[in-house]
Amino acid sequence: MEGVTAPSFRDLVLARNPPLALGGACTEFVRVVDTPVPVKVMRRHLGPHRFAQPVSLQLMGSDLECLARSAIHAVEAGAAVVDLNFGCPAKGALRGCAGSAALKDPRQLERTVAAVARAIPGHPVTGKIRAGFDDASRVEDLARAVEAGGAWMLTIHCRTRAEAYCDEVDWTRIARAVSAVAIPVCGNGGVSSHADLERMRAQTGCAHAMVGRAALGDPWIFHGAATTEADAARFLLDYADALFATGEPSKKGVAGRLKQLLVHWSAGALCRPTRESWLHMQDPQELFDRLALVAGEGRCPRLNPLLAAKVPA
Ligand SMILES: Cc1cc2nc3c(=O)[nH]c(=O)nc-3n(C[C@H](O)[C@H](O)[C@H](O)COP(=O)(O)O)c2cc1C
Fold first, then answer.
1. Domain ranges within the chain, ordered by starting residue
2. Bond before 305 cis per omega within 30 degrees
3. What was the pLDDT predicted at 155?
4. How many angstroms separate the CA atoms of 147 and 164, rounded?
5. Which helix (H) or strand (E) holds 125?
6. Contacts for 7-12 with beta carbons within 8 Å, 24 or more apart?
7. What is the spatial distance between Cα 123 and Cα 151, in angstroms, rounded to a whole number?
8. Among 142, 163, 286, 294, which one has the highest count of C-beta atoms within 10 angstroms of its own C-beta?
């Protein structure tokens, strides 16, 4: 997810969920505009290859030539899978006829998948769609377009572009996509607990289920492990360490990234008595100190001492 699922966060989640529980992960979208994205940018999004699970590199764009050449760079950078984003509802994406704009024209969607699949023969290409642009009447056409383009798997976020991130979800749209294609389908949208993962598979017939925001608040959601308040605090301190290690410039910046997770946080009993008591903390050091206290560790954040001296307040 954009702004969150960089390697610093993704690796911590992968480390806590065995491959049987968490089969793979994806980078945030890499925007392809009018020049191919260089290999070094792809490497930054992928990070070091530390876990058995495949990490897909997601591309979003509408220029077929640039997408195809970017896909070649993604493979060169070590991407196990190249995923194509046809779901982003942001105005910037729509202006560039990218993301969910493709949902208006299944034939163009198919051409986009085909252009990328042709560029990297033998390498898996997957496509992620929403259930439609304004409504879900063409779910089947969209799913078939991704399959006809040569994708190995279809991921469907069951909300339409118009529905953005509304609370209500309709998983029957996932079931319709499953019925329309022969490739594996990964269902997405509205999974808020470990039990929902199985419920989605049972109700829709999808082969895989993808978790979005709930994973930001419960990194153990795939595994379903019971977690304590201390585990939760340790995760957040590990995340702070990882952000500092990757060059996040200030304590304030790191605290902001932790709060991005705390908005969604559900694991352990960390957000008791109130979530607001965490979110309203102004002083980053106070936040780190409170986490360290809950984690039962002597100092915080558990920075690499060599880096600590370089981190401005
Ligand atoms: C902050 C944010 C960033 C996102 N970035 C991406 C992205 O880069 N690529 C993508 O395919 N989906 C992205 N999504 C959509 C999620 O992957 C997912 O499809 C959506 O949140 C629905 O799943 P959920 O109900 O489990 O959250 C993003 C969602 C959010 C909230």
1. 7-217, 229-308
2. no
3. 98
4. 24
5. strand 125-130
6. 7/45, 7/46, 7/47, 7/48, 7/246, 8/47, 8/239, 8/242, 8/243, 8/245, 8/246, 9/239, 9/242, 10/47, 10/55, 11/47, 11/50, 11/51, 11/242, 12/219, 12/235, 12/238, 12/239, 12/242
7. 10
8. 142
Our answer to whether residue 66 is catalytic in this structure is no
pLDDT in tens, 171-211: 999 999 999 999 999 999 999 999 999 999 999 999 999 99
Identify any residues that bridge with 29 across adjacent strands, giving them in sequence order.
Answer: 58
Torsion sign, CA atoms 171, 177, 182, 183? negative
Q: What is the DSSP letter of 36?
A: P
Peptide bond into 38 cis (omega under 30): no
Report how far apart, in Å, the C-alpha atoms of 292 and of each of 147, 302, 305 are.
Answer: 49, 8, 16
Q: If you classify domain 7-217 with CATH, what class do you get? A: alpha beta
Residue whose CB lies within 8 A of the most ligand 1 atoms, among 2, 82, 171, 210, for a mutation test: 2
Contact 113, 150 (CB under 8 A): yes
Question: How far is it, in rounded angstroms, from Cα 87 to Cα 146?
Answer: 13
Residue 212 Cβ contacting ligand 1 at under 6 Å: yes
CA of 101 from ligand 1 middle (Å) equals: 16
DSSP symbol at 249:
-
Q: Do 60 and 99 meet the contact criterion of CB atoms below 8 Å apart?
A: yes
Amino acid at position 267, single letter = A
Separation of alpha carbons 29 and 45, rounded Å: 9
Tokens read off for 136: 């879900």
Confidence at residue 267, expressed as pLDDT on a 0 to 100 scale: 96
